[in-house]
């Protein structure tokens, strides 16, 4: 017993003390383009995802600026109406399917899930690489539509227009179809990894809330994405074979498409935002130096959101002619899904209360997230009311609501995660002053862009219109100015993060003083994350314990016995401490 306890203490030191040679890390193990293209290291795959989603974010962002510039005047400003329709369609499709859905789970999740589990990699490394190649292949297929006739259906591909119009609708939908397989395989990989690859001692109550959020997200990816794949396949068959699933002339129903599409696409909103919730929990706890308030409430609320999210798709269809009783049920469920989200907001606020707060740039992005996502959530409740929704449906109010949730919520959380984990991913520190300036710039630019759209929408301005009446011009012009401020903020981020790779200060293993497991290895992490299997005694939010006690851990539990993984401990290789 004594030997096992001694070994446990020594391994716990290994678990919390970085290796003595920081130059041995995952980026210098194999070099060259071919090594990157064939790697099965989850960290490199995560970085490739991060580079890819960043590229598509900027492509989609440029298209957003083109849309806003065109809307500077009520009539034509510089592009034709058909071109305008194609640009806003590509903006929506690229941002949703190529950036929002994969950005946190596939990029940050790939990099940090195994590190937070004490694992050497994900459960299926080759499947992980295949997921990335499916994502790239689907993206390239979708982008072919730009040069092959364009697509002007909107990112929702609504029938009957999408099944009868010209252009490259079939190519675009096939590209999204392929990307869906990437999402499904990533979800399978993550769930298996969480169940089977946790380090000894890492029980469910010691799991990081970021892992919990990825777990809930993976469930949605596996269950909802096949519905989208089938729906888009039916659209392709409708166009190519004329099967008539959505064609009334052949006995079909175009509204059936909306049911299929939104059964996926509303849960897809939670694929985008729930991983962001996990980032918020990590950053809040680290920069307030407090144990997260209501751990189980936050963890289980992610699963509750995943479950209820499958039941609310009908609130997109209040004006589609569905039964009044169905609309009432969907309205109630829309209100209900706000409860687990409200639980998270309350617990995050309680965690900050009386905390030892360090206002670094990751936390500043989280503060921006709080305000913007709160506005997005409350306006979502407004749209969940049937009477108000009938008036506001398909207006700029919906556009503003969606962007407050997705950009104000998910993108702000994503930026917080990138800034929070940048030292661990790259081994370099960025310019903190510029990071804070860019955060404020983005916050101001975002509000200037989208707050006027709430006013426009409430006054009846329809979304997606190329021309508009002059009374809305001032709101469009304010919104356009805000979009350029927003673009400047994002370009600042790109500049100082890239600059940090060459001139940034070398990052310490744990610059934020976090208790989470991924911060207890070197920056940059070793190729296989841990040279010895870590034994987990303390949780990632145990800031209430003294640091020396936290580092060494406790060899005995409250009953005076060694932990349950004693056999595994005694079989470990000797550490350097021995």
Automatic annotation (TrEMBL):
Domain Cytochrome oxidase subunit I profile: 30-537
GO-annotated molecular function: cytochrome-c oxidase activity; heme binding; metal ion binding
Entry's EC annotation: 7.1.1.9
Entry GO CC: plasma membrane
Pathway of action: Energy metabolism; oxidative phosphorylation
Record's bilayer topology term: Multi-pass membrane protein
Main location as per UniProt: membrane
Subcellular location, record wording: Cell membrane; Membrane
Biased amino acid composition, Polar residues: 569-578
Keywords annotated in UniProt: Cell membrane, Copper, Electron transport, Heme, Iron, Membrane, Metal-binding, Respiratory chain, Translocase, Transmembrane, Transmembrane helix, Transport
Residue ranges that the Swiss-Prot or TrEMBL entry lists as coiled coil: none
GO biological process terms on file: electron transport coupled proton transport; oxidative phosphorylation; respiratory electron transport chain
Keyword Transport in annotation: yes
Enzymatic reactions: 4 Fe(II)-[cytochrome c] + O2 + 8 H(+)(in) = 4 Fe(III)-[cytochrome c] + 2 H2O + 4 H(+)(out)
Residue ranges of the TM segments: 47-67, 87-112, 132-151, 171-191, 212-236, 256-280, 292-313, 325-343, 363-388, 400-422, 434-454, 474-498
Region spans: Disordered: 555-578
Family: Belongs to the heme-copper respiratory oxidase family.
NCBIfam families (alphabetical): CtaD_CoxA
Function as written in the Swiss-Prot or TrEMBL entry: Cytochrome c oxidase is the component of the respiratory chain that catalyzes the reduction of oxygen to water. Subunits 1-3 form the functional core of the enzyme complex. CO I is the catalytic subunit of the enzyme. Electrons originating in cytochrome c are transferred via the copper A center of subunit 2 and heme A of subunit 1 to the bimetallic center formed by heme A3 and copper B.
Protein name per Swiss-Prot or TrEMBL: Cytochrome c oxidase subunit 1
Taxonomic classification: Bacteria, Pseudomonadati, Balneolota, Balneolia, Balneolales
């Amino acid at each position: 017993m004594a030997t096992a306890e001694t070994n446990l203490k020594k391994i716990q030191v290994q678990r919390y003390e970085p290796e003595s040679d920081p130059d041995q890390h995952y980026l210098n193990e194999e070099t060259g383009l071919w090594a990157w293209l064939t790697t099965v290291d989850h960290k490199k795959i995560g970085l490739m995802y991060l580079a890819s989603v960043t590229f598509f974010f900027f492509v989609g962002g440029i298209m957003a600026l083109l849309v806003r510039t065109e809307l500077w005047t009520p009539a034509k400003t510089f592009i034709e109406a058909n071109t305008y329709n194609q640009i806003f369609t590509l903006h929506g499709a690229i941002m949703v399917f190529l950036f929002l859905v994969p950005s946190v789970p596939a990029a940050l999740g790939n990099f940090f899930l195994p590190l937070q589990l004490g694992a050497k990699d994900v459960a299926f490394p080759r499947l992980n690489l295949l997921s990335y190649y499916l994502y790239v292949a689907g993206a390239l297929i979708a982008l072919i539509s730009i040069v092959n006739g364009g697509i002007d259906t909107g990112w929702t591909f609504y029938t009957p227009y999408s099944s009868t119009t010209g252009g490259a609708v079939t190519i675009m939908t096939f590209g999204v179809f392929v990307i869906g397989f990437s999402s499904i395989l990533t979800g399978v990989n993550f769930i298996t990894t969480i169940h089977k690859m946790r380090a000894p001692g890492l029980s469910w109550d010691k799991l990081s809330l970021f892992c919990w959020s990825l777990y809930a997200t993976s469930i949605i990816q596996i269950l909802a994405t096949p519905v989208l794949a089938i729906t888009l396949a039916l659209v392709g068959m409708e166009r190519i074979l004329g099967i008539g699933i959505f064609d009334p002339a052949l006995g079909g129903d175009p509204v059936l498409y909306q049911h299929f599409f939104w059964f996926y696409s509303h849960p897809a909103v939670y694929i985008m935002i729930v991983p962001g919730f996990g980032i918020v929990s990590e950053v809040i706890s680290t920069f307030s130096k407090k144990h997260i308030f209501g751990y189980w409430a936050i963890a289980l609320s992610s699963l509750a959101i995943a479950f209820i999210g499958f039941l609310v798709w009908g609130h997109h269809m209040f004006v589609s002619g569905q039964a009044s009783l169905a609309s009432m049920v969907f309205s109630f469920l829309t209100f209900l899904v706000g409860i687990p989200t409200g639980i998270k907001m309350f617990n995050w606020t309680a965690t900050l209360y009386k905390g030892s707060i360090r206002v670094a740039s990751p936390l500043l992005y989280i503060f921006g997230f709080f305000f913007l996502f709160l506005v997005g959530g409350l306006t979502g409740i407004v749209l969940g009311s049937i009477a108000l929704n009938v008036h506001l449906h398909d207006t700029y109010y919906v556009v503003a609501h969606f962007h407050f949730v997705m950009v104000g919520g998910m993108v702000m959380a994503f930026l917080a995660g990138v800034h929070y984990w940048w030292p661990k991913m790259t081994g370099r520190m960025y310019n903190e002053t510029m990071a804070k300036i860019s955060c404020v710039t983005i916050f101001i630019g975002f509000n200037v862009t989208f707050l006027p759209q709430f006013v426009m929408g409430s006054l009846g301005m329809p979304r997606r219109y190329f021309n508009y009446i002059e009374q809305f011009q001032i709101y469009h012009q304010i919104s356009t100015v805000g979009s350029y401020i927003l673009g400047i903020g994002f370009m600042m981020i790109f500049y100082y993060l890239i600059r940090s790779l060459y001139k940034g200060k070398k990052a310490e293993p744990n610059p934020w003083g976090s208790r989470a497991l991924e911060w207890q290895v070197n920056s940059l992490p070793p190729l296989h994350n841990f040279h010895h299997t870590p034994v987990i005694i303390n949780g990632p939010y145990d800031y209430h314990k003294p640091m020396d006690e936290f580092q060494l851990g406790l060899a005995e539990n409250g009953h005076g016995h060694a932990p349950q993984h004693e056999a595994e401990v005694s079989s470990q290789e000797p550490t350097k401490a021995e």
